[in-house]
Amino acid sequence: MTERDTAKIALPYGADGAVIPVQKFRDVQKLYATMTDGKMEYVLYGVENQAEIHYAMAVKNNLYDALEYTGQVEEAAKSHRQEMKRQKEQDETDSDQGKKTPNSGEFLSGFWKDDRLIPSITVTIFFGSKEWDGPLSLFDMMDITDPNILACMDN
Q1: What is the pLDDT of residues 104-142, one digit of tens each?
Q2: Would residue 155 count as lying in a domain?
Q3: pLDDT at res. 137
Q4: What's the per-residue H, E or C state across 80-108?
Q5: What is the DSSP letter of 3?
Q6: Which helix (H) or strand (E) element contains residue 73?
Q7: Average pLDDT, the chain
Q8: Sign of the CA dihedral 128, 133, 134, 138?
Q9: Can you name the residues that pair with 122 across neighbouring β-strands?
Q10: Whole-prediction pTM value?
């Protein structure tokens, strides 16, 4: 497992399009790589250490994972922009052979159809003296039992 930067920053849009920066710091984040079925697979593991019960821990962990995925999408978009710029500079002398042209959805998101995210798994380790009596998932924090609604939600 290799150490990763624990700081996560995102710039989600606020009211009236104002940018409100969000910065969070994980306790630990590591990249795990393993060989399965003849190919390399990667997983990001985040660890949150808790001495006290945090009754919104599921939301906190979900935010960390969402910020991780946002960062991966932004990195893919940046890489694609750089590649398109490089290809545009080469177009003056070379042919279009091997050039990838993004479709409208790929261009809009910056994330291409064949791009893939590295899974992010956050584990909370509780060191408190009492038994954890807080929610273990987002679903535990809601009064929704309809399986049709739950099937549409991340947990």
Answers
A1: 999 899 999 999 999 998 999 999 999 999 999 999 999
A2: no
A3: 94
A4: HHHHHHHHHHHHCCCCCCCCCCCCHHHHH
A5: E
A6: helix 57-91
A7: 84
A8: positive
A9: 46
A10: 0.76
- For residue 27, what are its two tokens? 């306790």
Is residue 57 in some structural domain? yes
The answer to whether position 1 is within a domain reads no
User: Which sign, positive or negative, has the C-alpha torsion 67, 71, 5, 122?
Assistant: positive
Instruction: State how far the Cα of 45 lies from the Cα of 1, in Å rounded to an integer.
Output: 9
- In order of 17, 56, 62, 63, 131, the CA distances from 119 in angstroms are 30, 22, 13, 14, 29
Q: Which of 51, 59, 55, 53 is nearest to 24 (CA)?
A: 59
Task: List all residues 6 or more positions away from 30 whose beta carbon is below 8 Å from its beta carbon.
Answer: 1, 2, 3, 4, 44, 45
DSSP letters, 19-55, are B--EEEE-SEEEEEEEEETTEEEEEEEEEEEESS--T
> Which uninterrupted H or E stretch holds 71?
helix 57-91
Distance CA 82, CA 88 (A): 10
Q: Report how many domains make up the chain.
A: 1
State in Å, rounded, how far the first CA of the chain is from the last one. Answer: 26
Domain of 131?
6-95+102-150
Integer-rounded Cα radius of gyration of the chain: 20
- Number of residues in the chain: 155
